[in-house]
Specification:
The complex is a heterodimer of chains A (385) and B (449). Chain A is 12% helix and 47% strand. Chain A has 385 residues and is mainly beta. In chain A, the strands form five sheets. In chain A, strands 2, 3, 16, 18, 20 and 22 form a six-stranded antiparallel beta sheet that branches. In chain A, strands 6, 7, 9, 10, 11 and 13 form a six-stranded antiparallel beta sheet that branches. In chain A, strands 4-5-14-8-12 form a five-stranded antiparallel beta sheet. In chain B, 10% of the residues lie in helices and 61% in strands. Chain B has four helices and 26 strands. In chain B, strands 1-4-5-7-8-12-13-18-19-20-21-22-23-26 form a 14-stranded antiparallel beta barrel. A two-stranded antiparallel ribbon of chain B has the order 2-3. In chain B, strands 10-11 form a two-stranded antiparallel ribbon. The chains are: A mainly beta (385), B mainly beta (449). Strand 3 of chain A pairs parallel with strand 15 of chain B.
C-alpha cells in the first residue's frame, strides 16, 4: 500500500501535465459563419454633391467619347458649363500670298476672296437631342507674320438658324488692323438671348489685306509664324429645350468587380434620398447584373437569376429649387445567392421637365445622395478563410 | 473576428478557478487536518503543519456546447447557417458568466490547547469573473431587427489578496463543537471594468450607442498616467516606490457548529468568508458619451473607392474609440465583499460498519455575478487512520455534479486530493467544459507534528 501511495504522489504531476500545447481546437472545424441571419439594417451615409463640374473633370480623364466630350466642354468664369469649338476662317502662308502679288516690291492691297466657316459643329448634333444653346458667343482673332502692322478690310456677317434663318452683320470687321508680329482678338459677338436659333456660319466677303512693299523681307522670323489667319472661337452654354428626351440603352457602369459571392447574400435593399439641382430628370430602368468575365474576350451575359427591382427617376431641380427623390433599389437572388458582380447594365432616360426649359447647365448643379441605407435579409456569410 | 467571437467565452472557460477552498467532502474525511476550512468547528486530531496547499474553482453557466455543434461528420460554430437562432440562443443565458478562484496556501499551522484547537493560516487568493449579455450574440446571430438593445451587463473583474487567518474551535459538550475564524485580508491588486450603460439603437437611419463605463484599478505597483489629451494611458505607467503597501484591507469571518445528537450521526453548519475588503482604487476612470453613426458622410467622387471608404470608416472607428477612452476620476475607496459560502452537511456512520458513512451536503456560494447552489449525496469510507475515500454525487445550479476525495497518510505526511466536476466533460487537451459546469480541485500535503 505504501508503494501505491508513493506512486500516486509521483504520478500526480504527470497527470496534471497531460496537455498538448500545439492542439488546435479549430483544426477540422467548419468555421464558416453567417451573421445577421434574419435582417440587418445599416445607414450607409451621404454621397456628394456630385456636380456636373466634377463629372466634366472625370470626362477629361476618360478615353473615347468621354475624352472628346471632355475636350469640348469647358467651364466659364461664372460656372456655366459651355461647349467650345475652335476653327480657322482663313489661313494663308506669307510666301503663297507673295506669289499671288503682281509686284511684290510695291505696297498693294491683296484680296483674299470670300471666306466662310461653319461654327455650330457639336451644337447642331446636341440640338437633335433637345439641348439648346444659350449665351452663344463668337470670337474672331487674327494673326500677322510680318514685323509691320497690316490693315484689313472686309464685310462680315453671321447666320443663325432656328425656326427661320437670319443674318446679322459684324460692323467691327469692316476695318481693323493686325498688329505686327502678333495676333489680336478682333471682335466678340454675342447672340441676343431673345433670338431663338443656333449660330451656324460666319461669312466674309471682300477680305482685303493692305500689304507693305517687299513683304517677304519683313517677315518676323522670331515668331515662327508664317501665316496670315483669321480664327474663330464659338462657345455657348447648354440648356434643356422643350421636348428634350435622350434615351440611352445598355449603358455599362464599367468594371465594378465586387466579390459579393463569398458573402452569400440573398437579398439586399438600398434606400436613397437623392437631391438634384440638375434641370434634367434622370430615369433608370432595366438594371441587369453581369458576372465577371472569366476571360478577357468573353461576352458578358446578364444573370437571369438576379432580380433587380429599380425603375426609379431622379426628378429635375434647380439651384434655387432642388428636387428630392426617394429611391428604392432591391437586389434579390431568385435561387442561391447574389454572385460576384462584374458590372451593371442599365437603361437611362434623360428628360426635360416642364418649367426647366432654357435653364443653363452649370458646374455647380449636381446630385447629392442626402442619405442612404441598406437592409440585408438572409444573413451575411463570412467564409472560412 | 470569427474566432474571437467564440474565443471570448470559450477561452475563459478553460481557466480553472478558485477558492481556497474548503470542499464539502472534507466533513467526511477522517484524519483530514484542514477540515476547519469547511467548518471552523472541525478540529484536527493532532497538531500539524501544511505547506504548499493549492485550490482552484471555476464555474461557467454555459459551456462549449453552446458554441460548437455537430452537423453530420462536421463540427460547426454557433454562427453556422445550419444552426438556427432558436437553437443557439436557447442554449445561452441572459447573462453568460464565468468566474473562479485560485488559492495558494502558503502556510497552515494548527495546535491543540486544552479543549480548544487553534489554527493559523496564510493564503494568497485570487478571483476573476467575466459576464457577457445574451443580446450581443442575438445581434450577431439574428441581426438588428430588435432595434433597441440594452447591453449593460458586461463586466470583467478580478482581484488578488493575502489572507491571514486565526481559527479557534472548542468542544462545548460531547455533542456540540463550535468554531470561528477571523481573517485579515490584505489587498494586493483589484480590477473592475464595467459597462454600466450600453444602450444601442439600430435603425436604417442611424446606429447609436450611449455608453458609460467605469474602470476601477488599484495602484499597487503603478500609477497610470494620462496621454496628451488627458485620458488614462496604460503606456504611461509610473512605478510606485512604496509598492509594498497594500491596496486594500478588510476582514472576513468563518463561523461553524458541529452537532452530534446521536451516536454516529453528526450535523455540520457553517458560513465562511463573511466579509470583504475596502479597496483603494488609485486608478479610476470613466468614459461617458454617445456615438451615432449615420453612415459615411459627404463622400466625393474621388473617395468612392476602397481606400477612400476605408479612410472614412477609420474616422468613424476613431470616434467610437474616443468615446471608450477613460477620463481619470478621483481615486475612490470601495467595499467589495468576498464570495461567501454557506454549508450544511449531515453524516451518519453505519452502526454495523463504522468505517462506512452516508450523508448529504448542501452549499451555497454567494457572488453577485453567478450565485451557486449545490446538493450532493455522500458515501465515505475511512477504514484506517491513514486512508479515507469519499465519493459524492448530486445536482447544482449548473447541472449534475460528482465528486471524489482521497486522503492518504505516509508516516507523518498526509496527502489530500479532492475533485468535483460536472458530467459534461471537456474538449480534449483544452480543459474547456462542454456544458455549464462547476469544477473544483483541491490538493495539498500536511505534516503531523
Amino acid at each position: 500500500m505504501k508503494r501505491v501511495q508513493l506512486c500516486l504522489i509521483l504520478l500526480l504531476p504527470l497527470v496534471l501535465g497531460c496537455s498538448r500545447q500545439e492542439y488546435d481546437i479549430w483544426e477540422g472545424m467548419n468555421t464558416e459563419m453567417t451573421l445577421f441571419e434574419e435582417e440587418v439594417s445599416a445607414p450607409l451615409g451621404s454621397i456628394g454633391p456630385i456636380t456636373l463640374g466634377s463629372f466634366v473633370d472625370k470626362l477629361g480623364r476618360m478615353e473615347g467619347i468621354g475624352q472628346v466630350l471632355g475636350e469640348l466642354l469647358k467651364v466659364a468664369d461664372d460656372g456655366l458649363l459651355k461647349l467650345e469649338t475652335r476653327g480657322a476662317i482663313f489661313k494663308k502662308n506669307v510666301y503663297e500670298v507673295s506669289a499671288q502679288l503682281n509686284d511684290p516690291g510695291l505696297a498693294q492691297a491683296w484680296d483674299a476672296g470670300p471666306q466662310s466657316a461653319q461654327v455650330d459643329g457639336m451644337v447642331t448634333l446636341l440640338s437633335y437631342f433637345g439641348l439648346v444653346p444659350v449665351r452663344q458667343q463668337l470670337g474672331i482673332s487674327a494673326t500677322n507674320p510680318l514685323r509691320v502692322e497690316v490693315p484689313v478690310t472686309s464685310s462680315a456677317s453671321y447666320r443663325y438658324t432656328g425656326e427661320e434663318e437670319h443674318t446679322a452683320r459684324i460692323p467691327e470687321m469692316d476695318r481693323f488692323a493686325i498688329p505686327r508680329r502678333g495676333s489680336v482678338d478682333i471682335v466678340s459677338v454675342s447672340v441676343p438671348e431673345s433670338v431663338s436659333g443656333t449660330m451656324s456660319s460666319l461669312d466674309l466677303s471682300h477680305l482685303t489685306f493692305d500689304l507693305p512693299a517687299n513683304m517677304l523681307s519683313r517677315i518676323a522670323d522670331d515668331t515662327g509664324n508664317l501665316f496670315f489667319s483669321l480664327d474663330y472661337v464659338f462657345s455657348c452654354g447648354l440648356a434643356v429645350g422643350k421636348g428634350f428626351k435622350l434615351p440611352l440603352s445598355n449603358i455599362s457602369t464599367g468594371k465594378i468587380g465586387l466579390p459579393m459571392g463569398q458573402f452569400k447574400l440573398k437579398k439586399c435593399q438600398l434606400t436613397l434620398e437623392v437631391e438634384s439641382t440638375i434641370p434634367i430628370a434622370v430615369g433608370v430602368d432595366n438594371v441587369r447584373l453581369l458576372r465577371p468575365k472569366e476571360n478577357e474576350g468573353d461576352e458578358a451575359v446578364a444573370d437571369d437569376n438576379i432580380k433587380i427591382v429599380s425603375g426609379f427617376t431622379i426628378a429635375a431641380g434647380s439651384m434655387e429649387n432642388p428636387a428630392t427623390s426617394s429611391i428604392t433599389v432591391s437586389i434579390e437572388a431568385l435561387e442561391g445567392c447574389i454572385p460576384d458582380i462584374g458590372e451593371l447594365l442599365l437603361d437611362i432616360q434623360l428628360t426635360g421637365a416642364p418649367g426647366f426649359e432654357k435653364v443653363a447647365l452649370t458646374t455647380r448643379q449636381g446630385v447629392q445622395i442626402k442619405s442612404s441605407s441598406a437592409v440585408v435579409s438572409g444573413g451575411i456569410t463570412i467564409p472560412e478563410k | 473576428m470569427k474566432k474571437s467571437i467564440i474565443l471570448i467565452l470559450a477561452c475563459a472557460l478553460m481557466a480553472v478557478n478558485a477558492g481556497a477552498q474548503s470542499f464539502p467532502q472534507a466533513f467526511f474525511l477522517d484524519g483530514y487536518r484542514l477540515g476547519y476550512r469547511y467548518n471552523p468547528a472541525l478540529q484536527a486530531d493532532t497538531p500539524f503543519l501544511a505547506l504548499g496547499q493549492w485550490g482552484s474553482r471555476s464555474r461557467n453557466n454555459i459551456g462549449a456546447e453552446s458554441f460548437l455543434y455537430r452537423r453530420g461528420d462536421e463540427l460547426v460554430t454557433a454562427f453556422h447557417s445550419s444552426v438556427s437562432a432558436q437553437e443557439f440562443l436557447g442554449n445561452l443565458k441572459d447573462v453568460n458568466s464565468l468566474g473562479g478562484q485560485y488559492d495558494v496556501h502558503l502556510l497552515s499551522y494548527g495546535w491543540k490547547k486544552g479543549p480548544a484547537f487553534h489554527t493559523l493560516e496564510a493564503n494568497v487568493r485570487a478571483q476573476y469573473s467575466l459576464s457577457v449579455p445574451k443580446d450581443i450574440f442575438s445581434i450577431l446571430k439574428q441581426g438588428t431587427s430588435g432595434k433597441n438593445y440594452r447591453l449593460d451587463g458586461m463586466q470583467v473583474a478580478g482581484n488578488a489578496y493575502i489572507e491571514l487567518a486565526y481559527g479557534y474551535s472548542r468542544q462545548l459538550a460531547d455533542w456540540v463543537s463550535v468554531g470561528a475564524r477571523a481573517k485579515l485580508l490584505v489587498g494586493m491588486e483589484s480590477l473592475r471594468y464595467r459597462l454600466t450603460q450600453l444602450d444601442m439603437t439600430f435603425t436604417e437611419q442611424e446606429y447609436r450607442a450611449d455608453i458609460q463605463a467605469d474602470l476601477s484599478l488599484t495602484s499597487h505597483w503603478n500609477k497610470v498616467g494620462t496621454d496628451k489629451d488627458g485620458y488614462l494611458s496604460f503606456l504611461n505607467l509610473n512605478p510606485k516606490d512604496r509598492w509594498f503597501l497594500p491596496s486594500g484591507a478588510g476582514l472576513a469571518l468563518d463561523l461553524g457548529v458541529v452537532l452530534t445528537p446521536l451516536e454516529g450521526l453528526s450535523l455540520s453548519a457553517s458560513v465562511t468568508d463573511l466579509g470583504g475588503l475596502f479597496w483603494y482604487y488609485g486608478n479610476s476612470g470613466q468614459s461617458k458619451g454617445s456615438v451615432n453613426f449615420t453612415g459615411l458622410e459627404g463622400l466625393g467622387m474621388d473617395e468612392l473607392n476602397a481606400d477612400g471608404l476605408k479612410e472614412k470608416l477609420n474616422e468613424q472607428l476613431d470616434q467610437f474609440k474616443q468615446t471608450l477612452k477613460l477620463k481619470p476620476v478621483r481615486s475612490q475607496t470601495l467595499f467589495e465583499p468576498v464570495p461567501f459560502q454557506a454549508n450544511l452537511a449531515v453524516r451518519y456512520e453505519l452502526p454495523f460498519y463504522r468505517a462506512l458513512s452516508l450523508g448529504a451536503t448542501g452549499n451555497y456560494v454567494g457572488t453577485k455575478e453567478m450565485p451557486y447552489m449545490e446538493a450532493q449525496g455522500v458515501l465515505a469510507w475511512n477504514p484506517w487512520s491513514w486512508l479515507g475515500v469519499v465519493a459524492s454525487g448530486g445536482s447544482g445550479s449548473l447541472g449534475p455534479v460528482w465528486g471524489a476525495a482521497v486522503h492518504a497518510a505516509f508516516k507523518h505526511f498526509r496527502l489530500t486530493i479532492a475533485y468535483s466536476d460536472g458530467f459534461g466533460g471537456t474538449i480534449p487537451y483544452t480543459s474547456t467544459p462542454v456544458k455549464a459546469n462547476s469544477r473544483q480541485l483541491t490538493a495539498g500535503l500536511t505534516y503531523d507534528l
